Structure formats: structure tokens, C-alpha cells
Amino acid sequence: MNVNKNTLVDRVAPQLGSRRAAAEAVEVVLDTIARALAEGNSVSVTGFGTFEPAQHASRLARNPQTGDRVTIPARRVPRFRPHQRLKDLTDGRRALPEAGSSIRKDPKGTRAAARDAA
To answer: Which of 24, 48, 103, 109 is the most exposed place for a label (fewest CB within 10 A)?
Structure first.
């Protein structure tokens, strides 16, 4: 199942008490990320990942219809680098918690204890 913005709002609504509050919260978060990227800044969310602007140099390409060579100008594009916790959740190496946040930091000492047990 794909999750779009409406689905995201529906999933956030029970925790905020209303769909209107959830829609506003989702919109504000996404707008804040977009504005930071447009300004050339990175946005890092602990346990989730980092959104950052990446610079693509200009390059030569070929128009597939005419075969003519065209220059594609340099541009800045958004890039997302997932945090290791998100990678582990996606790959199934980390179990989703029954309740609470799946990206919240582990309590202090938890990783060390897990590492020593392995």
C-alpha cells in the first residue's frame, strides 16, 4: 500500500485528536523541509534520515527525438539519506515497536547492552 499525504494525515489524526490538526501538522513539517532545502540547508531528523540539497553539474545529453546534442544546465536537487535505524526497520533487522515511535532513540546503554550480548 502506498502512503500519500492524505493517508499520512489519517494516520497522524488519532494522535493529535483531529484530522484538521493532523493536516496542519503534516503541512507545516513538509513546508519547513521544502523551505530549508530551497534555501540550500540540510534537514536532519534523528533516527529517520537527512534531507539535503545536492548539486548536479551541467552535462551534455541527446534529444531522443532528433538526435541533437543538448546541454542540460547545472541544477540543485533534493536528496534523502536514510538513517541506519530506518534502514534496519525497512530491511526487517529491527522490529517495529507495538506502541510509540519507531524512530525514537534507544534509551542510554541499550545499544551497548545489545552489542555486548551479540
So the answer is: 109
Helix, strand, coil percentages, rounded to 5, for the chain:
40, 25, 35
Per-residue pLDDT of the chain (118 residues; tens, 9 = 90+): 799 999 999 999 999 999 999 999 999 999 999 999 999 999 999 989 999 999 999 999 999 999 999 999 999 999 999 999 999 988 888 888 877 777 777 777 765 445 544 4
Per the confidence metrics, is the pTM higher than 0.90?
Answer: no
CATH code where residue 56 lies: 4.10.520.10
Cβ pair 19, 10 in contact under 8 A: yes
